[in-house]
Design a protein that fits this description.
Layout (H helix, E strand, L loop, with lengths): L17 E5 L2 E6 L5 E9 L12 H11 L7 H10 L3 E6 L3 E9 L3 H13 L5 H19 L2 H13 L13 H5 L3 H11 L5 E6 L4 H12 L21 E6 L5 E7 L9 H22 L7 E5 L5 E8 L2 H18 L3 H18 L3 H15 L4 H10 L3 H11 L4 E6 L6 H5 L9 H6 L4
Parallel strand pairs: 2-6, 7-11
Antiparallel strand pairs: 1-2, 3-5, 3-6, 4-5, 8-10, 8-11, 9-10
Helix pairs in contact: 1-4, 1-7, 3-8, 9-10, 9-11, 9-14
Amino acid sequence: MLGAAIIFPASAQNKQPYEMTVNGVKVIVQPSGNEIVEVRTILKGGVQNYPPAEAGIESLAMTALTECGTAKDDKNSFKNKLDKVSAEIDGNSGMDYSTYRLNCIKSDLDVVWPLYVDALTSPVFDSKEFDRIKQDAINSLKSEASRPDFAINKLAKETAFAGKDYAKDPDGTEETVSKLTAAETKQYYGSILTRSRLLIVVVGDLDRNELEKRIQELTAPIPQGKPFTLKRYSYVPAKNSFTSEKRDLATNYIEGITAAPQPGSADFDAYVLASRIFYDRHFLEVRTNNGLSYAPIVHFDAGLSPYTSVVVSTTDPDKYKAVLDQLVNKIKKDGFTAEEVKNGKTGYVTSFYYKMETNSAQASSLASNEVLHNNWRRALTMSEDLKKVSLADVNHAFNKYINHMTWVYQGDSSKVNPALYTEAPQKSRPPDSKLKNAGKK
């Protein structure tokens, strides 16, 4: 969720995006210049909304809205009506919010909109259908548990965020999901379906008065609820740590988690670029130059509890750690180059312009920027915002956030030396003169 610059169809150039408030709910509207309508109703909170013992309940609830029928239609009737007009209605849950979306041709909105409203406001949570989707969820969790890359990430987050919301998986675990019932999931859904948690994003060419009337219809049955504020947490490990699990795997898996800037902070855009350049350098050193891992990863998770992770699978974990240390120390000593930052800006903006060609992608970007950055317009200004980021900003961001790591390891414990992962990092950094003058290169 790094945000995006949006590419606008030529016919939509003169129609400006806007926001309005309907029944106390913020509604963000982006004219599309095409005949497709995408509507997203956002329920804020994500993993903040439930205790660890109920992990997976919101995911099941969002699935149940379309899979368990409504007060007016059972599951088959609901889906048959959608199929007749080739429309889509579905939901998903994430770390910071859940999304319930509608996508249809504008001329079919009169058919699809009542189904969307019914699913959101009067779902029935039929017990037979609920048991079916619960079993599907359990089967999916079992499948994921057998994947080493999933297992290492799960261990890393549970270790780094122990006792915090980000230790939870929105999909839950086999244990938590198996205990959930249709009745308690319905009750839970009713507790979070409040106007105070809602955000609605619309991408489509709709008359404003008509749209406002539709949103009033959608939100009228929904209670206001108690005031709701999203919690933010910054993970900054005080020291290096290492946790190991012995596993019989073909190779060994390592993941390290460290800090990252909060969405909306002054360092954010610079760190987006820093993490992308770091990804490229990490890949070059680990795979190309040393042949230590097939797919080494650097990932910046830019949510409400942001973090950076490095992930590798390797037969030589200690050599990997030595290569990583050399790479990080070199970057802190010499900094990135002006050419890397220039290319990073071009690559980032180009890739997201390309991705933002659909109404669905535009709606997703507007929603994430509003929830995470408190600024939906950032989705429209990304290109200009990145132009303001200097080389010095990027070097500063890397040095500020890439420090101590929380390491986890799964594989052959005889192949790894924990001491190499718990040593304090060298406190080398670009000289002040380099930081101050780097942007002048």
